[in-house]
Write a structure and sequence with these properties.
This protein has helices spanning 2-25, 32-47, 80-92, 153-162; strands at residues 60-68, 75-77, 100-109, 112-122, 128-140, 143-151, 171-174, 180-184, 189-194, 197-208, 211-216, 221-228, 231-234, 237-241. The strands form two sheets. An eight-stranded antiparallel beta barrel has the order 7-8-9-10-11-12-13-14. A six-stranded mixed beta sheet has the order 2-1-6-5-4-3, sandwiched between helices. 26% of the residues lie in helices and 43% in strands. The protein is built from four helices and 14 strands. It folds into two domains: 2-162, Roll (Nuclear Transport Factor 2, Chain: A); 171-241, Lipocalin.
């Protein structure tokens, strides 16, 4: 029932946005050539797939304002780097390749392009990931400067909860004196040994960019920062990757 309601809302939003755009272009505005160029720019970007900075997201302005529209806790990212790290990153890291965009409709009105499209990809656990999107984009100087993004949050939340994200920090991390050994496992779990005490702390972790968050099985939380590919700062201590 929840999924059905979400999809119905997305379809209604798409119909409203596309309908407004069509009514805006019907009169033959003097900017029709710019609308055509904007539409082709967006179409070509979708053809590159939707994943990292060299995909569709290459046409985002550095200061893009990207809003994920939802009834509870909408989120706005205020620049391209923030969006790629905190918005797209948690999704891309759970997929085994880029999202293939099946574009249903692109409609331009002035400097706005509305895209209604389906995203299809394979998650890292081998299951398909399919979502329906409506993106309302404002373009400036052939770059996307503002986005209001609508999508099926049921499908997204299932992916985020089911699949462990990939990251480059899997392995053993050790303090210089060798007393603490923290293993970051590929299944999103960690196991920390202290001296001869194996499994002194265990729990789950998640990496976003260079930040790591821990949720220990005993109930406490912690965090840390990877200052390089081989050095982790956590709990006032320095860990180095074991080669």
């Amino acid at each position: 029932m929840r999924r059905t309601a979400t999809v119905v809302v997305a379809v209604l939003v798409a119909a409203t946005m596309v309908g407004c755009a069509v009514s805006g272009t019907a009169g033959g505005s003097p900017g029709r050539e710019q609308e055509r160029r904007n539409t082709e720019l967006v179409r070509d970007a979708f053809a590159r797939g939707v994943s990292g900075q060299d995909s569709f997201y290459a046409i985002l302005a550095e200061d893009v304002q990207w809003t994920v529209v939802r009834a509870e806790a909408p989120r706005t990212y205020t620049n391209r780097a923030e969006f790629l790290r905190d918005g797209a990153g948690p999704i891309v890291s759970r997929l085994d390749g880029p999202i293939r965009a099946e574009v249903h409709e692109l409609v331009a009105d002035g400097d706005t392009v509305v895209a209604r499209w389906r995203g299809v990809a394979t998650a890292r656990d081998g299951a398909p990931y399919v979502n329906e999107y409506v993106w309302v984009m404002t373009l400036r100087d052939e770059r996307v400067s503002r986005v209001s993004a609508y999508l099926d949050f049921v499908a997204l939340d299932e992916l985020l909860q089911r699949v462990t994200p990939a990251h480059p920090y899997v392995g053993m991390w050790v303090t210089p004196d060798g007393h603490i050994r923290q293993e970051l496992r590929p299944d999103g779990r960690y196991d920390e040994a202290r001296g001869g005490r194996v499994g002194a702390y265990t729990g789950r972790y998640e990496v976003r960019g260079t930040r790591i968050d821990y949720w220990d099985d005993s109930g406490f939380t912690a965090d840390g920062t990877f200052v390089s590919d081989d050095e982790l700062h956590h709990g006032g201590m320095v860990f180095r990757r074991e080669s």
